[in-house]
Task: inverse folding
């Protein structure tokens, strides 16, 4: 096993990056947003244009958990994990066509606000509580854990608690003063770093192996095929439907992702930004997943697959580039963590504080939001070490989401497309379906009561959610048509201005993105 060392130059590059991007950007945006209140802090004053939205969508998802988890999953299971990366392209098309027009028409700060307008206050609070739960138990700890594990390998004398705490404080203080504007502006810089870093790793990993034939020969059976048998323990081909369901929650309803689009300057900007993000996800096969497969040739006996990234970065790269890769990891971890903490603050403030204290003015709400960030930051630090109980970071992230999120998807889909769905049905789907998902996850993943692949569990939980919403709605009075109509999707929501040039038509862009995505899937089938 090669010895991994970090030089003083590497650490200097890392520290310089953090200081420049967090202090300089944070100071600038603290001045820019001073006095703007809730709309400026939570939605950046509705000034978001499509390139920034797309970059921010991508970077918010590409946290340390992805940078560490994807190569680790590629090492352990092959390229089948790419299903999580190409599927967003199709899901973001659905978001642009069906979800976003309704959300922007409603002028909402948070996704749960839509549920209140469609179903009433109780479903809104239930969903917001669930989003806060996943943010603090899944999203934020996953990002912190990824970075901490890498630095623990490189700097074993530094406690994991120190790493986690420093990262959380850096992210928390930055967004406390800068708000959404600071987050998305930094995201443009982080995205360039992430792509550059991924390309550097990929090129050096390719050069380190003798040939593609060597990779194909030494990799695990089926590692270079997307489609795996139905009994595969990690990615059975019928489970792709489960990836779609979990992905719809993540890309179409999860606050820390869609908050960028909610701050769009126009519907077109929101749509173009979402489609741009879908396109950016596709190269992850080459810059993150395949290097993990190459590592099976270079380091065949790694005990922990999550160590693939530091092995590639600090065994193959020279001094200087190693520091650059540390900066890339910091960019991924901090950007994702900032997005998560900011969205959690938005949920808590706009869905709970404003509900209890509707008389609060915009400045007071912004102050509550800043205070909430600090509380959530502490909670994430305390919970993060629990992830070490799972074989890989990726398994932890995807398993818990597969149990918790499908009932949410059922509620939103029926809310958008089925006028008969009512508040009782939505509340049943969320207040019964999500807790049952938690119980099922604990029973299956922690206690091993039954043997059930988590993507199949996602299908079962989605069916349960549909049954709860439909059953409870049909057993109770139908909602008033006039109250429901404004919150349904209509064919007119898909229309574009007739004067638009053809290349600006999001429908043509969507067809192009879908074509490229499906061609890539078929090539690696």
Result:
């Amino acid at each position: 096993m090669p010895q991994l060392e970090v030089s003083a130059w590497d650490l200097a590059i890392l520290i310089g990056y953090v200081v420049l991007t967090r202090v300089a950007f944070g100071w600038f945006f603290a001045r820019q947003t001073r006095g703007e209140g809730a709309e400026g802090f939570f939605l950046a004053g509705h000034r978001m244009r499509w390139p920034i939205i797309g970059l921010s969508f991508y970077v918010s998802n590409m946290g340390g958990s992805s940078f560490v988890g994807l190569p680790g999953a590629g090492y352990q299971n092959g390229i089948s994990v790419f299903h999580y990366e190409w599927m967003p392209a199709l899901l973001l098309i659905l978001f642009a066509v069906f979800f976003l027009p309704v959300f922007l028409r409603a002028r909402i700060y948070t996704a749960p606000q839509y549920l209140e307008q469609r179903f009433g206050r109780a479903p809104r609070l239930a969903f917001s509580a669930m989003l806060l739960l996943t943010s603090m138990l899944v999203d934020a700890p996953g990002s912190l854990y990824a970075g901490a594990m890498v630095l623990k390998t490189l700097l074993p004398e530094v406690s994991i608690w120190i790493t986690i705490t420093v990262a959380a404080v850096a992210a928390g203080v930055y967004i406390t003063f800068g708000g959404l504007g600071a987050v998305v502006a930094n995201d443009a810089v982080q995205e360039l770093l992430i792509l550059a870093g991924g390309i550097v790793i990929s090129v050096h990993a390719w050069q380190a192996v003798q040939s593609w034939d060597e990779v194909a020969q030494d990799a695990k059976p089926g590692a270079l095929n997307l489609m795996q048998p139905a009994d595969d323990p990690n990615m059975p081909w019928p489970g792709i439907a489960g990836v779609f369901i979990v992905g719809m929650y993540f890309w179409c309803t999860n606050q820390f992702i869609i908050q960028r689009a909610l701050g769009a300057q126009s519907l077109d900007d929101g749509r173009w930004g979402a489609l741009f993000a879908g396109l950016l996800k596709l190269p992850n096969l080459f810059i993150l997943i395949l290097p993990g497969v190459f590592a099976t040739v270079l380091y065949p006996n790694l005990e922990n697959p999550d160590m693939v990234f530091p092995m590639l970065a600090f065994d193959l790269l020279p001094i200087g580039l190693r520091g650059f890769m540390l900066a890339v990891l910091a960019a991924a971890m901090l950007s994702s963590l900032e997005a998560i903490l900011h969205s959690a603050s938005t949920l808590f403030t706009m869905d709970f504080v404003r509900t209890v204290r509707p008389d609060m003015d915009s400045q007071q709400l912004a102050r509550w939001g800043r205070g909430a960030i600090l509380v959530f930051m502490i909670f994430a630090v305390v919970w993060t070490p629990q992830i070490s109980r799972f074989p890989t970071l990726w398994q932890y992230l995807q398993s818990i989401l597969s149990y918790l999120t499908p009932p949410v998807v059922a509620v939103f889909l029926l809310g958008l497309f089925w006028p008969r769905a009512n508040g009782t049905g939505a509340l049943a789907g969320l207040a019964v379906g999500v807790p049952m998902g938690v119980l099922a996850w604990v029973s299956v993943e922690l206690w091993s009561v039954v043997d059930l692949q988590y993507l199949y569990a996602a299908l079962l939980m989605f069916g349960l959610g549909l049954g709860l919403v439909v059953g409870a709605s049909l057993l109770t009075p139908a909602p008033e048509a006039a109250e429901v109509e404004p919150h349904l999707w209509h064919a007119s929501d898909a229309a574009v201005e007739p004067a638009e040039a053809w290349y600006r038509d999001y429908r043509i862009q969507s067809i192009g993105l879908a074509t490229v995505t499906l061609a890539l899937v078929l090539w690696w089938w």
Remarks:
- The CA atoms of residues 83 and 295 lie 20 Å apart.
- Residues 35-46 have pLDDT under 50 and may be disordered.
